[in-house]
Each structure stands twice: as C-alpha cells, then as structure tokens.
C-alpha cells in the first residue's frame, strides 16, 4: 500500500476552490503534485492556496509529474477528453459529474476504465453526505415503498434538469435500486431551458418514485423522502435528516454536531467522497460511485429527459 498518493488537480473554479482545494492539504497521505488550469496564473493562485508542488497549464505537463490519481473539476464539456487522457496514461480518476455530456462518451469512459484497469469515480458527492448516509443505514435491510426526490431552484439554465437533478436521480437509485418504467412531464417554451420536470418512476423491486425538479421556486431546495417498512426518512440537504417510526421521531442536524462550524465540503459529502477515493486508490478497491454504477444514473436521467420531451444525452 502506498504511504502517500500523488494527485493532480485539473480546474480551479468554484467547486475546486470551495470543496477540493481546502480538503486535500488536510490529508496526511496525499501529496498534491500539481494543479492545472488553462490560464497559468489561475493555477498559480490555487497553488498558493493549497501548497501544490507545481502549477501547470496543460494536462500533458500534469501527467509528467508522475501522478497516482487526478481530480477532474472542469466544465462538463471537458470531462470525457480529460478522463480519457488520464486513464490511458495510467492515472486513477475522480471526475465531477457528469462523466460525459453524451451516453456514447460515458459508455466509452466505462470501457476505458475497464481496459486500462484504472479507477474512475464520479463525484456523486450527495451519497457520501452524513445525512444521506444515515438515511441509507435506515434502509439497508428494508426496501422503501415510496421515494420522493426534489431539486428546486428559482431560475432556469441551459439543460437545467440534466445539470442539477442528476444528484437527486442518483440518490433515488442509491435508495431504491434500478428503475424499469419512467413517465415524465416537462414545461418549457424552449426545450433547452425547461421550467420544470416531474417524473414517476417504477423501480424493479416494485417501489414507486417521484422526481420533482422545478426551476421557478422561491429558493434552492433539495429534499428526499423515503417511506416503507413502517418508518419514514426526510432528508433536508445538506443540514438535517429525520427518521420516524411508530414510536419516535429523531432528527440529526449537522451544524450543532460541528459546534456551529459545519462546512459545505463536509455537509455536502465532498470531503467524505474524496477520502473514499483516496482509500480506494491506496487499497485497490472499487469506488462506490464507480464508472459502471455512475453510467446507470446517466442512463436513467436520459430516459427521464426523453420521456419529458427534452433533449437527451445524445
């Protein structure tokens, strides 16, 4: 087992600066070999933030630093090309979602990971969030009957359901398993900028799911409700989870647990996802959100989009 994992970071935007660059230097078994950005000055700024050994402007320079693993934190249009380059050069990869903008490219990433024998973990960080883990514990030995997932925001954006609801779709798979039927509805004037998407899901185990992704709500809201086995779970991301049975209701809140110092990288699961990836690299284990599993979430989202009359992951 490696004592230290040499990592490279690609991308220095909001997600990188808030949820990765602050976390990696805290890990004693991680060595930040280099940070890459297309504009070298951005890489140099990030280098000063985290103490990376090198700042570079090309992926070739980054790989030449001798990496064990790399974090792809760039815009989604870059993911497939960058993941492909890294896997082919023997580097294990953690990539932000989605793994590619088309199912064809996503499938190719799965194949490359298998052909090269390198790990590819997709950053479905919500699974690793403490509130979501507590919900999973409640439904480890009990199958849910009903799962309701919501991801609502005040304003739309280009392909809004794909961009934001993918996390909720992944969590619904995490709790309910695979889906055999999808019936979706969307409202839009321009199909590239939908107002909302709702979807009824029938899981293979007989459970029912409802996805609600609205882009005209009052504020950002992300919730999961799970019912079944004479108990219920309500997750209010990323702060609280309430587990209720016939005798009691118990709520766990993240901020009081952290003495008022709860941070987004912990509450939203980023720090736990990063730790999981590093452990998988060191111990040669398959990540929870590996390429094969993540592809199934992309595929389900594509089915929802197409059923709703929206552009799919073509």
TrEMBL record:
InterPro entries: Gfo/Idh/MocA-like_OxRdtase_N, Gfo/Idh/MocA_oxidoreduct, GFO_IDH_MocA-like_dom, NAD(P)-bd_dom_sf. It comes from the Bacteria. Residues 157-231 form the GFO/IDH/MocA-like oxidoreductase domain. Residues 5-124 form the Gfo/Idh/MocA-like oxidoreductase N-terminal domain. Coiled coil: none annotated. PANTHER family: CONSERVED EXPRESSED OXIDOREDUCTASE (EUROFUNG) (PTHR43708), OXIDOREDUCTASE YCEM-RELATED (PTHR43708:SF4). This is Gfo/Idh/MocA family oxidoreductase. It comes from Muricoprocola aceti.
